[in-house]
Each structure stands twice: as structure tokens, then as C-alpha cells.
Amino acid sequence: MTENTIRIGIYPGSFDPLTYGHLNIIERAAKLFDRLVISIAVNNTKTPLFTPEERAAQIRHVIGGDSRIEVDYFSGLLVEYARRKGACAILRGLRAVSDFDYEFQMAHMNHKIGPEIETVFMMTGEDHFYVSSRLVKEVASLGGDVTGLVPDNVFVDLCKKYAALQKGVQK
User: CATH number for the 8-129 domain, one of 3.40.50.880, 3.60.20.30, 3.30.70.270, 3.40.50.620?
Assistant: First the structure.
């Protein structure tokens, strides 16, 4: 690696919604890379709660004006996307040992497709290891309090989204 090489990391995920666990990894990863691309996976076979645009707005609001962090979308092969972005690494967060098996398989497949791109695993901070987007949505959908699990702007968006969905059900 030459002196002028910029280290670009890709942090892919659904971020539906962004949690403090995600944010913990984003903040720590921003210290490891010259540029970090938070890449929202667009998967037409899934039905997320928030649109890609809503998720991007939530993330941008939280990260503020940090010019080293970009928020983008991708579909298709992650390795191909990482190549287009000029990334040297794909960042994957781990909450528990149960995450590792799946991530280990994906890392090996990605290495087979793109051996020039490393996979970097980062453990979520100990305060957030139990937090997942799926659980946050489940608790919020049942009227549970998810403050402290998601940033304030995401909390407000969750409340609005579930209130609107409830109104639609009651009609």
C-alpha cells in the first residue's frame, strides 16, 4: 500500500432501523478507515419497515456532517459493489457467537469472489450486543419502549410508522 492510498471500508446492512449497536460500529470503524461507506442493502424479496431513503435519512441525521462517512445503497453482489467503491475491506458487526457461523461463511464466499477485499469483523460494544433491528421492530410494534436502543430520530420515526400502521389496521 502506498503512502497516498486511501483505505475505504464498506459497512453493509439493512439498518432497518439503525440501532445504537450499528452506531457503535460506525463510530469505531470511522477511526480505522480513511473513508467509511455505510451501504444500505436493497433486497426486493424483503419488505422492510423503512424505505431505503428513510433509512439513509436516519443515518445521515445521526452521523451529522462527517465528510469521511458516506451513506449509499446497493443491490446485487456486495463484492462487486465494494470494487466499484474502491474498498479494501468489508466490515461486519458481530453481536454473539451465533452471528459468527453465518458471517464466517459469507466472508469466505466474498473472499472467493474478491480475494483483494478483506472482511473485517468487529464486535458490537458490550452495551449493545443483545440489540438487533428485528427485536427493536418487534418490541416497538407491540408498544414497548425502545428508547436507549435506537437514536432519538429513529425512535420518533418508529413511533410514527407504527402509529400509522395501527390506524390502517383499525380502518
Answer: 3.40.50.620
Marked catalytic residue, from 35, 60, 83, 95: 95
116 Cβ contact list (under 8 Å, min separation 6): 88
pLDDT digits (tens, 9 = 90+) for 71-94: 999 999 999 999 999 999 999 998
CA dist list (Å): 155 to 36, 55, 140: 24, 12, 9
Catalytic residue among 14, 22, 132, 137: 22
Active site residue 95: yes
Q: With a threshold of 0.85, does the pTM exceed it?
A: yes
Q: Is 128 a catalytic residue?
A: no
